[in-house]
Amino acid sequence: MRISLGAAVLLGALVGTGLTSTDVVRAAEKTKGKSELAKGKAATAGQKSAAPTVAQKGKGQALVHKGGVEPVARKGATKPVATRSKTESVAGKAKSAPLARQGVAAPGVSKAALRASKAESDRLAQSHKAAALLESGGYSRGVQRKNLTRVIAGNVDLWQDPGQLAVHSGSALVVPQDGGEPLYEKNAHAVVPIASITKVMTAMVVLDSQPNLQAPITISDDDVDYLRGSRSRLQVGSVIPRETALLLALMSSENRAANALGRHYPGGLTAFVAAMNRKAASLGMTRSHFEDPTGLNSNNVSTAHDLARMVAAAHRYPLIREFSTTSGARAEINGRELGFHNTNQLVSSPTWEIGLSKTGYIQEAGKCLVMQARVADKPVVIVLLDSAGKQTRIGDANRIKRWMESASLSGRGPTRV
Question: Which NCBIfam families does the entry mention (predicted)?
């Protein structure tokens, strides 16, 4: 049997120990095996160190070439990098990602690779969460400003910050009353039914005709809602002053009062509806259309942007401001005094400074709300359309208010989103 020089030296050292020849031979074979293994590792290391290098074309960036990453030289020096196919890299991440989330390394994956995989998994999860909230117009806490996502809405560059505001209404708009850039918008150009928001336009058209507000008008069968069967305490045959009808239409969204106002317009209801559409056109409400003075007709449609124009215009009418923000009133109907209340509970809140308000609801439109209000010492118009829940529009309005106030306290003003 042949043995290497190293084994021979070991054999000589072991002879004086009293070990048997068999033990000596086994030790020699073990030493030979380790020597061959060391040679194999040295050869592999030599092959890696011989990997080709390339000069850096993009400072500090690896160049992907034919499925591998070529080495990059920094500041004139070359740094060899072992090539690895893109497919192998992706497969490795896919293998380690599920285990990384559990804090367990896959076979052959180092702790450093485990930490990197977990960080990537967390980053992707946060990104997907922010994207989902962005699509729904919402926000999530804990996302830094550097992760703002830029979107285009209505040819206006907006910045969605996933850490501040969540609006759940289908369409929404917050815009300065003077018509400046929107502070927030969501589906604000979508044409949708507007329900009793219509009555703001009804009030403007009535007042534009400069009628005698003390003149009596009569509630007739033509004013009864046979389309949807909505209730009213204004019985057929009731006679009330035009001013009272206007108050009840704006404050309590009284459908019979609104329809009676249109019927008593010079030329009747047809002329009144035509005047509504002319008024809308004069205000630049290019995507709006009206077919009745109440909003019970789902063909009364508009956009959040158009309605913001309408609210800003209506705010110039003192009587509309007063009547739409009155929290409650008593009116004499057929010799009886009845109490009526505002359909927007926020007008009674001491934390709100509301200059104009109108709610609306039919099934096709969902819950709607438009307001002119002073928030964080800024006069703004808020439009919320197509809200599903009973309190969604109120919750959205309060969230917008807190968002603006928080931005004001921070000294940076509300961020356009």
Answer: PRK11669.1
The tens digit of pLDDT for each residue in 337-395 reads 999 999 999 999 999 999 999 999 999 999 999 999 999 999 999 999 999 988 999 99
| Catalytic residue check, 196 | yes
Record the tokens describing residue 70, joined without a space. Answer: 């070529």
Catalytic residue among 96, 238, 253, 387: 253
For this structure, is 253 an active site residue? Answer: yes
| 390 in a labelled binding site | no
Active site residue 35: no
Annotated catalytic residue, options 196, 288, 302, 357: 196
Q: pLDDT tens digit string along 285-319? A: 999 999 999 999 999 999 999 999 999 999 999 99
CATH number of the domain at 171-409, out of 3.40.710.10, 3.40.1280.10, 3.10.310.10, 3.90.1570.10?
3.40.710.10
